[in-house]
């Protein structure tokens, strides 16, 4: 299989570039299409951090089986060529979809609600069904992949932290700017509420159709660390993707509830954010993380 993959790790098959590697679309000898991430082993000065990311991804994904988390099929670790082989998801990344007019319009409100619920379900699984718990540390639109049915799959586990009670939970942070929790600016002590904050940013992005940085800034009072929710800043025209038609009842009410929940996840005080269990309850997800 290694020879077959090496032949297909060519620029014409490239479908994405990340900090630790390049992702290619490849076909196995049995005819199955997969994603192959080839690590940047030639990068001077970053070999240690890249191999750490490689190991973290394998550790996190080798035991995970969940319908909203990308599946790792296998890996190859070698001094010259190291690969990770995943299931191929035809829909592509959420960030690219939201940046495309045609694809964003096709992603209607029902599909967006399902994406928000699917990501919450996956985070619940990592926090509550994995032992020890797994903190993803980089929940962002570029790390959400969709299949042809627009079902969300969390990917890129290279920054994950496994919460081991017998070891430190401090990390050298490498998440995506604009998504990581504000407390990580002054402490590297990671916990579940870090993923909850990132989930809040992602959820608003799904509703708005673009990164909500400006909206988040406008909703925080300079004199308070809490998010101020008012009817004014939650008018439909302010929080919904203008490329879609306004949703009608009952979808409209559900979208507004989701936006309010997302804002609660953005509280600057970690303990004031809801847990992902509370998020799933608010989203009316029955038996979260049970679908594997």
TrEMBL record:
Known EC number: 2.7.11.1
Keywords, sorted A to Z: ATP-binding, Glycoprotein, Kinase, Leucine-rich repeat, Membrane, Nucleotide-binding, Phosphoprotein, Receptor, Repeat, Serine/threonine-protein kinase, Signal, Transferase, Transmembrane, Transmembrane helix
Organism annotation: Quillaja saponaria
Membrane-related topology note: Single-pass type I membrane protein
Protein name: non-specific serine/threonine protein kinase
Coiled coil segments of this chain: none
Subcellular location: Membrane
Catalytic reactions on record: L-seryl-[protein] + ATP = O-phospho-L-seryl-[protein] + ADP + H(+); L-threonyl-[protein] + ATP = O-phospho-L-threonyl-[protein] + ADP + H(+)
Domain of life of the native organism: Eukaryota
PANTHER family on file: LEUCINE RICH REPEAT KINASE 2, MDIS1-INTERACTING RECEPTOR LIKE KINASE 2-LIKE
GO cellular component, one term: membrane
Enzyme class: transferase
Molecular-function GO terms, alphabetical: ATP binding; protein serine/threonine kinase activity
Protein kinase domain sequence ranges: 9-285
């Amino acid at each position: 299989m290694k020879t077959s993959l090496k032949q297909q790790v060519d620029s014409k098959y490239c479908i994405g570039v990340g900090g630790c590697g390049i992702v290619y679309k490849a076909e196995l000898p049995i005819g199955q299409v997969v994603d192959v991430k080839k690590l940047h082993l030639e990068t001077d000065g970053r070999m240690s951090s890249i191999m750490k990311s490689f190991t973290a991804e394998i550790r996190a994904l080798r035991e995970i089986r969940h319908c909203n988390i990308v599946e790792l099929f296998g890996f190859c670790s070698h001094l010259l060529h190291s690969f990770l082989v995943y299931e191929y998801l035809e829909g592509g990344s959420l960030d690219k979809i939201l940046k495309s007019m045609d694809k964003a319009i096709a992603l209607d409100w029902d599909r967006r609600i399902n994406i928000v619920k699917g990501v919450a379900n996956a985070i619940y699984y990592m926090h509550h069904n994995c032992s020890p718990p797994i903190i993803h540390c980089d929940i962002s639109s570029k790390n959400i992949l969709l299949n042809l049915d627009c079902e969300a799959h969390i990917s890129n586990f290279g920054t994950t932290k496994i919460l081991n009670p017998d070891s430190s939970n401090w990390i050298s942070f490498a998440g995506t700017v604009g998504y990581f929790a504000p407390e990580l600016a002054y402490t590297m002590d990671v916990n579940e509420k870090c993923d909850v904050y990132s989930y809040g940013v992602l959820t608003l992005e799904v509703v708005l159709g673009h990164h909500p940085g400006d909206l988040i800034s406008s909703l925080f009072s300079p004199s308070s660390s809490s998010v101020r929710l008012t009817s004014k800043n939650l008018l439909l025209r302010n929080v919904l993707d203008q490329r879609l038609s306004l949703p009608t009842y009952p979808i409209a009410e559900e979208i507004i509830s989701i936006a309010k929940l997302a804002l609660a996840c953005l509280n600057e005080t970690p303990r004031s954010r809801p847990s992902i269990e509370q998020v799933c309850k608010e989203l009316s997800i029955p038996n979260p993380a049970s679908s594997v």
